[in-house]
Amino acid sequence: MTKSSPNIAWGEAALSRPQFIEQVWQEGRAAYRELPWRNIDDPFAVLVSEVMLQQTQVARVLNFWPRFMAAFPTADALAAASSADVLEHWQGLGYNRRALLLKRAAEVCAATLQGQLPRSYDELLALPGVGPATAAGVCNFAYRTAAPYLETNVRSVFLHLLFPSQENVADRQLMPLVADCAATEEPRGWNYALLDLGARLKAETANPSRRSASYARQSPFAGSNRQKRAALLRCVLAHPEGIAAAQAWQLVDEELARAGVAPADERLKGEIAAQLQREGFFRCEGGLLRP
DNA sequence: ATCCGGATAT
DNA sequence: ATATCCGGAT
């Protein structure tokens, strides 16, 4: 049952493979969203959009992708830019690590591929900050070469149509179906249809992806390490000439206080600053935190 | 107060 | 396997 190749178990629903594919094409096309990073062949521009769309919704990315691409139009440009400049353009998008990883990916392309992006899924996957979904996104959308693309909107479509009542559905169950459908003549259009139908389903009904085994609730932001990390980074970026750690933390504590959040204790402050340095967000030179 | 969302390090 | 990483909208 798990192996018979043309007749893999097609979810739990009474929907055949051709019926499923037809329905996704029909409803996905009807729900089509025109987005600035769509229908372009430039793999770097697509990579930037895919990385921004990791853990960040379309509405937010719309405010950032055009400005980012104007500032860093090519992998060479991003590789040559300062981390501070790149992080500045990322502020407000969240999960700042992604910006550093994207810049490192650009540096790999600049150093080893004359500024071009790799063509193959496996080589894309090897780039910093590029996982299975992002690598598949670049293949499908930029190169129009088919690759199984499984992210939240796609997951929602498969769960809604093929696992309508099952809870805790693992990606391991979904992936064979996604891969089966991915073998198409039109990988770009097919995956746009999946994304757009998924987005429509979420707008109309309870998020089907909540029935995914990998769905996780977030811990609260207020009072979190994430909040303090982000505030410290913003503070250091605002002082290009460098700022003493104690002074930076005083400014951060004031900002937290305005948000009704207690200041971090000294031990935590040290750990957060050290962690950010280790990850490459800034350096400590002559007692000054410097982007 | 609750919601949304991929990759990486351990 | 599990913990961690952001911020705005609602």
UniProtKB/TrEMBL annotation:
Highest rank taxon of the organism: Bacteria
Pfam families: HHH (PF00633), HhH-GPD (PF00730)
UniProt entry tagged with the keyword Transmembrane helix: no
Enzyme Commission number(s) of this protein: 3.2.2.31
Cofactor(s) this protein requires: [4Fe-4S] cluster
Domain HhH-GPD: 52-200
Main enzyme class: hydrolase
Name of the protein in question: Adenine DNA glycosylase
Species of provenance: Parvibacter caecicola
